C-alpha cells in the first residue's frame, strides 16, 4: 500500500468533498485523514486528504484521471507521495 496526500483549493461550492471522496474510492483508495475549511472572507475552499492506495496505484496513476474531477470546480491541486 502506498500513502499519499492531496491538497486542494478552489472557490467554495457544494459537492467538492463528495467528488473527491468518490473519485478516490473508485481508484481503490482509503481516506485515512481529511481536513477542510472555507475562508468566508474570500469564498475559497481548502482541503487536505491523506489516503492509502489499496490497489498499489502510483501517484501518477491517481493524478491522471483527477483532471475530470478538478475541472468543474476549477481546482488547484497537488498529489504528494507521503
Can you give a write-up of this model?
This protein has three helices and four strands. Helix content is 29%, strand content 45%. It is an alpha+beta fold and 82 residues long. Strands 2-3-1-4 form a four-stranded antiparallel beta sheet. β2 (29-39) and β3 form a beta hairpin. It is globular. The model has no long low-confidence stretch (mean pLDDT 95). The protein has helices at 16-26, 59-64, 67-73; strands at residues 2-11, 29-39, 44-53, 76-81. The relative contact order is 0.35. The chain has a single domain (2-81), classed as 2-Layer Sandwich (Alpha-Beta Plaits), CATH 3.30.70.260.
Q: What is the alpha-carbon Rg in Å? A: 12 Å
Q: In CATH's first tier, which class applies?
A: Alpha Beta
The main sheet orders its strands as 2-3-1-4
CATH architecture: 2-Layer Sandwich
How many domains in all? Answer: 1
Low-confidence blocks of residues: none
Quick one: how many beta strands? Answer: 4
The biggest sheet amounts to: 4 strands, antiparallel
- Mind telling me the CATH superfamily name? ACT domain
SS-based structural class? alpha+beta
Number of contiguous helices: 3
What overall form do the CA principal axes indicate?
A: globular
Task: Fill in the CATH topology.
Answer: Alpha-Beta Plaits
Mean pLDDT: 95
Distance between the termini: 12 Å
Series of secondary-structure elements, N-terminal to C-terminal: EHEEHHE
- Helix proportion of residues, in percent? 25-40%
Kindly estimate the percentage of residues that lie in beta strands according to DSSP.
over 45%
Amino acid at each position: 500500500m502506498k500513502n499519499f496526500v492531496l491538497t486542494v483549493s478552489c472557490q467554495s461550492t457544494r459537492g467538492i468533498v463528495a467528488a473527491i471522496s468518490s473519485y478516490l474510492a473508485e481508484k481503490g483508495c482509503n481516506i485515512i485523514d481529511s481536513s477542510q475549511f472555507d475562508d468566508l472572507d474570500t469564498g475559497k475552499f481548502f482541503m487536505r486528504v491523506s489516503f492509502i492506495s489499496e490497489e498499489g496505484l502510483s501517484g501518477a496513476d491517481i493524478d491522471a484521471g483527477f483532471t475530470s474531477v478538478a475541472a468543474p470546480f476549477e481546482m488547484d491541486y497537488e498529489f504528494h507521495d507521503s
